[in-house]
C-alpha cells in the first residue's frame, strides 16, 4: 500500500525494521496491488493496480507461514517498479485476503489528570473544598503569621468505594374510591345534614308504620356499605390530623404562657405543702383546716380514725428525721418550753446538690426570700464541678437558678446597687458575675481574660459600699476578694473583670524563746513569703477598714486608703483563721474562729484576746453575729451548732444541738427579719431551723 498526497508525492510511512535487500528475494508468481489515494475537494477515490509475475498466483504467501512481512513489502515495491498493468474486471472480482494485526502499545508518558468533570460524582465535594481553600487564603492574606512558600505535593490516586446493601423492595398498593367518597371525606360536615334529614323523614313518614325486618336489614347493609366506602379515604386523614395535632401539642408545651402558668401552679402547690412551716418562718398564724363532719355512719368514722392513725405515724417519722410541724402541739413541761431550743422547719436540698458540700451562703440585699448557695466538692480529691444555686422560699424543693462552674464554688455574694448581680469565687482562683434575671447559665463577666487574676482559691468575696449615704443609682460598690495566694484585691466592673491589689499579706517569723545555755540557730527562710488569706470582713461603719485572717493564725487590721498599710496585728490563734466578723451593733468588737477549736472575742484597740470560747474539741468552721442582739452569736463545730448568749453565760452555750449526725456543718447564716437560722452541711443540704426563747428577758436585746 502506498499513500500519496494532493501533489502526488509518496508519503507512505517507512517501516521501523529495514531488512537486508540482498537477502530479500522476491518470489515469482505473486499478486501485487498498488493503491492510490486521490483527493478532489471533499470527495476521495481509491485506485488500485495489479501486477503479476511469471509464475502467476501459485506463490502467494500465507499468513503465519513464517515469512517476514518486510520481505513481501520490498518484493511488492520491486515488482511495482518493473511492471504495472491495469486491473481487469476478473481481477477486481477475484477475492483477496488481507490480514491486519495490532502491535503492542508503548507508554512513553502517563500523568493523571488533576481536573474533575462537572458531571462527576465528586464534583460537589471538590468545589466545596476549593471554596474552603479560597476562604482560608483570603483570611491568611492580611495576617502577620502567614508566610507564602512553595511546596510540592503528590496527588494520590483517586479511589472509588461502593457500598453493598440489601435490595429495597417496592410494593404498589391501590384502592378504589368514587368521587362522592372524596367529596364526603374532604367535607364531612355535609354528611350530617343528609343523615339527619333521612332520620327525620323516617320518623315523620313512618310514624304510623314501623319498618319491617327486611327494611332494617337493607338499611343496615346500606349504612355499612357507606361506612366501608367512607373508611377507605379516611385512612389518609388521620395521618395529616396526627401531624397537625402533634405540632399543636408541641407548640402548647413550648409556649411561654404555659410555662408561666406552670410556675404559678407550682407556687400554689408548694405553699399548700409548706404552709405551716412557711407560716412559722414568717412568724404568722398557722392556718388550721376545719373539721368536716360526715353523715355516712360508722364507715366514715372508721375512715377518719384510719387517717388520724396514718397521720400520727407520719408525724412520728418526721420527728425521727428532725422535722417538726409547727401546727402540731407537743406536750412539754414549762421548763422545756422556756428553755432556748432549735426546731427544723425544712431543708434546701435536691438530687442535683447531693454529693456536694455547702461552702457559702448569702441573702439577696433587696429580696429577703432569695438565697444564694455555693457548692464545692466534698473532698479535695473529687473532681466534681461546682454549683451556684439561687433558692426561693416559694419553692424549697428545687432551685430557681442553677449556674454550673468548672471548679468548686467557695464564695458567693449579692450586690446591693445591682441586686440581680451575683458574684461567685471558685477554688481555681477565678471570679465570675452572673445575672440572676437571665435564664442563661453563662457568666455575665468573668476573670478568665484578666492578667492579674488569682492563682489560689478565692475563700471570700464581698460587695462593699463606697458611699453609704447615697441612694438609688448613686450607690457605688466595690467587689473585694481575698485569696489563698496572699492578695486582697479590688475588682473593677467594666467590659471585662480586672483587679488591682490592695494588700499583699506577708508571713511573719515567730519569736522562739531561747533556753538558758542554748546556742543561737540560724533562722530558716519560709518557703513562701506570702501568707494565705482565709477570710476578711469590712467595718460596718467605715468601709476603708477591714480585718484579714491568714493561715498562720494571725489577724491583720488593714486600711484601703494606704497601700499595704497594716494598722494592727492580732495574735491569738494557733491554726488557720476560718472566719472574722465585726459586731454589727457594737462596732469596736469582733469575733474570730479557727481550726484550733477556739472562738475569740477581740476589741479593736487591744491586741490581747478578751474572751476565748472553747466547749468541744472540734474545728470551728464558721461564726456569725445575730442581727437582733449584740450578745448572741452562732458557731458551727463539725456536726454541732452552738448558740452563745454572752448576757447569760460566757462559759457554756445556751444551745448546743447536733443538727445532722451524718454530716459535718460547714457554714451558718441568720435569716433576715425572722428568728431562724440556716445551717449548711457537707452533704449539700441547707437546713432552716427556728430559734425559740432567745429573746427572753435578761438577754439585753439591742
UniProtKB/TrEMBL annotation:
Which ranges are annotated Basic and acidic residues under compositional bias? 310-335
- Biological processes per GO annotation: cilium movement
Ranges where the record places region Disordered? 1-23, 46-71, 184-243, 293-335
Record carries keyword Repeat: yes
CC per GO annotation: axonemal dynein complex; dynein axonemal particle
Is the RNA-binding keyword given for this protein? no
- Spans of repeat WD: 570-612, 613-647
Single GO MF descriptor? dynein light chain binding
Query: Which protein is depicted?
Result: Dynein axonemal intermediate chain 4
Biased composition, class Polar residues, residue ranges: 218-227
Task: Write down the Pfam families for this protein, in alphabetical order.
Answer: WD40 (PF00400)
Predominant cellular place of this UniProt entry's protein? cytoplasm
Its domain of life reads Eukaryota
Q: Which UniProt keywords apply?
A: Cell projection, Cilium, Cytoplasm, Cytoskeleton, Flagellum, Repeat, WD repeat
The record's subcellular locations are:
Cytoplasm, Cytoskeleton, Flagellum axoneme; Dynein axonemal particle
Q: Where is the composition biased (Low complexity)?
A: 46-55
Amino acid at each position: 500500500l502506498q499513500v500519496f498526497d494532493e501533489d502526488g508525492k509518496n508519503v507512505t510511512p517507512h517501516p521501523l525494521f529495514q531488512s537486508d535487500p540482498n537477502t530479500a528475494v522476491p518470489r515469482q508468481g505473486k499478486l501485487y496491488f498498488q493503491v492510490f489515494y486521490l483527493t478532489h475537494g471533499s470527495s476521495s477515490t481509491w485506485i488500485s493496480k495489479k501486477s503479476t509475475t511469471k509464475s502467476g498466483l501459485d506463490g502467494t504467501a500465507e499468513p503465519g507461514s513464517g515469512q517476514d512481512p518486510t520481505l513481501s513489502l520490498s518484493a511488492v515495491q520491486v515488482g511495482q517498479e518493473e511492471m504495472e498493468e491495469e486491473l481487469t474486471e476478473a481481477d477486481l472480482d477475484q477475492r483477496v485476503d488481507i490480514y491486519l494485526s495490532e502491535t503492542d502499545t508503548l507508554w512513553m508518558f502517563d500523568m493523571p489528570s488533576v481536573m474533575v468533570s462537572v458531571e462527576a460524582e465528586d464534583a460537589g465535594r471538590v468545589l466545596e473544598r476549593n471554596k474552603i481553600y479560597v476562604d482560608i487564603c483570603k483570611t491568611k492574606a492580611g495576617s502577620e503569621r502567614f508566610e507564602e512558600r512553595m511546596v510540592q505535593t503528590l496527588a494520590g490516586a483517586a479511589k472509588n468505594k461502593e457500598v453493598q446493601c440489601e435490595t429495597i423492595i417496592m410494593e404498589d398498593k391501590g384502592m378504589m374510591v368514587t368521587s362522592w367518597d372524596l367529596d364526603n371525606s374532604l367535607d364531612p360536615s355535609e354528611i350530617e345534614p343528609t343523615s339527619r334529614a333521612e332520620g327525620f323523614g323516617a320518623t315523620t313518614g313512618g310514624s304510623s308504620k314501623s319498618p319491617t325486618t327486611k327494611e332494617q336489614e337493607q338499611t343496615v347493609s346500606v349504612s355499612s356499605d357507606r361506612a366501608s366506602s367512607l373508611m377507605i379515604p379516611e385512612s389518609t386523614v388521620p395521618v395529616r390530623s396526627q401531624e397537625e395535632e402533634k405540632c399543636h401539642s408541641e407548640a402548647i408545651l413550648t409556649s411561654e404562657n404555659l410555662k408561666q402558668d406552670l410556675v404559678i401552679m407550682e407556687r400554689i402547690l408548694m405553699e399548700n405543702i409548706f404552709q405551716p412551716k412557711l407560716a412559722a418562718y414568717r412568724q404568722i398564724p398557722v392556718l388550721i383546716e376545719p373539721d368536716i363532719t360526715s353523715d355516712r355512719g360508722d364507715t366514715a368514722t372508721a375512715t377518719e380514725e384510719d387517717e388520724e392513725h396514718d397521720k400520727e405515724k407520719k408525724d412520728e417519722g418526721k420527728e425521727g428525721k428532725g422535722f417538726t410541724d409547727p401546727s402540731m402541739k407537743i406536750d412539754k413541761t414549762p421548763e422545756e418550753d422556756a428553755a432556748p431550743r432549735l426546731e427544723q422547719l425544712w431543708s434546701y436540698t435536691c438530687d442535683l446538690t447531693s454529693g456536694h458540700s455547702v461552702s457559702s451562703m448569702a441573702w439577696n440585699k433587696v429580696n429577703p426570700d432569695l438565697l444564694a448557695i455555693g457548692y464545692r466538692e466534698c473532698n479535695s480529691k473529687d473532681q466534681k464541678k461546682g454549683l451556684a444555686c439561687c433558692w426561693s422560699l416559694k419553692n424549697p424543693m428545687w432551685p430557681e437558678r442553677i449556674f454550673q462552674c468548672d471548679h468548686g464554688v467557695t464564695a458567693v455574694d449579692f450586690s446591693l446597687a445591682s441586686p440581680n448581680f451575683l458574684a461567685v469565687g471558685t477554688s481555681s482562683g477565678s471570679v465570675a458575675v452572673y445575672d440572676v434575671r437571665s435564664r442563661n447559665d453563662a457568666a455575665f463577666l468573668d476573670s478568665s481574660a484578666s492578667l492579674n487574676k488569682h492563682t489560689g482559691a478565692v475563700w471570700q468575696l464581698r460587695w462593699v459600699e463606697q458611699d453609704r449615704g447615697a441612694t438609688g443609682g448613686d450607690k457605688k460598690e466595690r467587689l473585694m476578694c481575698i485569696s489563698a495566694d496572699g492578695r486582697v484585691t479590688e475588682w473593677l466592673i467594666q467590659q471585662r473583670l480586672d483587679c488591682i491589689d490592695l494588700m499583699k499579706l506577708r508571713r511573719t517569723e515567730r519569736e522562739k524563746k531561747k533556753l538558758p545555755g542554748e546556742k543561737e540557730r540560724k533562722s530558716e527562710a519560709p518557703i513562701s513569703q506570702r501568707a494565705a488569706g482565709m477570710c476578711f470582713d469590712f467595718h460596718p461603719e467605715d468601709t476603708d477598714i477591714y480585718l484579714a485572717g491568714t493561715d498562720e493564725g494571725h489577724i491583720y487590721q488593714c486600711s484601703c486608703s494606704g497601700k499595704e498599710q497594716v494598722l494592727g496585728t492580732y495574735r491569738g490563734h494557733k491554726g488557720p483563721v476560718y472566719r472574722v466578723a465585726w459586731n454589727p451593733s457594737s462596732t469596736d468588737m469582733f469575733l474570730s474562729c479557727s481550726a484550733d477549736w477556739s472562738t475569740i472575742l477581740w476589741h479593736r484597740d487591744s491586741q490581747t484576746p478578751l474572751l476565748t470560747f472553747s466547749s468541744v474539741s472540734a474545728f470551728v468552721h464558721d461564726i456569725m453575729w445575730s442581727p437582733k442582739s449584740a450578745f448572741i452569736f452562732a458557731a458551727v463545730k463539725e456536726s454541732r451548732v452552738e448558740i452563745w448568749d454572752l448576757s447569760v453565760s460566757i462559759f457554756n452555750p445556751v444551745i448546743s444541738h447536733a443538727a445532722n449526725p451524718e454530716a459535718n456543718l460547714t457554714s451558718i447564716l441568720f435569716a433576715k427579719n425572722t428568728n431562724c437560722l440556716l445551717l449548711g452541711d457537707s452533704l449539700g443540704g441547707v437546713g432552716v431551723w427556728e430559734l425559740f426563747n432567745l429573746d427572753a428577758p435578761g438577754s439585753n436585746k439591742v
